[in-house]
Write a structure and sequence with these properties.
Distance between the termini: 63 Å
CATH architecture of the largest domain: 3-Layer(aba) Sandwich
Order of helices and strands: HEHEEEEHHEHEHEEEHE
CATH topology of the largest domain: Rossmann fold
Structural class: alpha/beta
Radius of gyration: 23 Å
Shape: globular
Strand content: 15-25%
Helix content: 10-25%
CATH class of the largest domain: Alpha Beta
């Protein structure tokens, strides 16, 4: 078997939600987090509270909600400082070379290999090139496939009055970590608005350009409204834009129930 083990684990690993639950309950007391911002997770406040209870090692290239609570922060090389590959939408590997020579930052895989050495379970993957070579030697999986378990459809939430189902996603130009300090680029972003249907606009007495407040038990967001063709039960707001950070202010994700009123 690969990497000095006799067999592969039969038990599937934990999902991100299961990891957070295990940190909260104390079943896990330490975690390595690489390239993940807790504010991108559903119910980020619970995730941050769970991280605060554990020993956190963060692999990052910039400050984040995870580095703020981490016990150890290990700087890793940015994409311009290392070589590697991406899988495109077709599942094809697309390689890239480092654009910055003589970087003092180590790659993620080098740091993970050093951590494995310190834990007494060496994986001997010192460079990106050596890692890619080993992965390629594994070849394609020719064993049995995991059977997909059927999942029952969930019950659709119903709303009435001023309640609405939240619809939200990130925009290309928003408050992403890698866009910090790029004020000129941010100046080209789309206006931050809440989108509601004409029927909802009439019911709460607002027109395009006026302010609405989107709220729940965790907080509220007040931004201009745009009346457009959208489902009458829904309200759309940007997930992580200026004046509209649904994950932070509302601790809410797509499909959660919020209240929409004239501000």
């Amino acid at each position: 078997a690969a990497w000095g083990v006799d067999s592969l684990p039969a038990t599937p690993g934990r999902t991100s939600t299961q990891i957070i639950d295990a940190l909260t309950s104390g079943d896990l007391d330490a975690v390595v987090v690489g390239g993940v911002d807790a504010h991108d997770l559903p119910h980020s406040r619970e995730a941050i509270a769970a991280l605060k209870k554990s020993f956190v090692v963060s692999l990052e290239i910039a400050p984040s909600s995870v580095t703020a609570v981490a016990d150890v922060v290990l700087p890793v090389a940015a994409i311009t400082e290392k070589s590697g590959s991406f899988l495109n939408w077709e599942g094809r590997a697309r390689a890239f070379d480092s654009a910055v020579a003589d970087s003092h930052n180590r790659s993620d895989v080098r740091i993970l290999s050093m951590l494995a050495d310190a834990l007494g379970n060496p994986i001997s993957l010192g460079t990106v090139t050596s890692s890619a070579r080993e992965f390629n030697q594994l070849g394609s999986w020719d064993g049995s496939r995991v059977q997909l378990a059927p999942v029952a459809a969930g019950t659709a939430k119903s709303v009435s009055g001023n309640d609405a189902l939240l619809s939200s996603w990130r925009r290309l130009l928003d408050m992403g970590t890698l866009q910090k300090g790029e004020d000129n680029l941010a100046g080209t972003r789309r206006p931050t608005v809440a989108v509601i249907s004409p029927k909802r606009a009439t019911s709460i007495g607002v027109a395009t350009g006026q302010q609405v407040r989107v709220s729940n038990a965790h907080g509220s967001i007040t931004i201009p409204v745009l009346v457009e063709d959208i489902h009458e039960d829904a309200v759309w707001i940007p997930r992580n834009s200026f004046a509209s950070q649904a994950l932070v202010a509302l601790d809410a994700v797509h499909g959660d129930v919020v209240t929409v009123v004239k501000a």
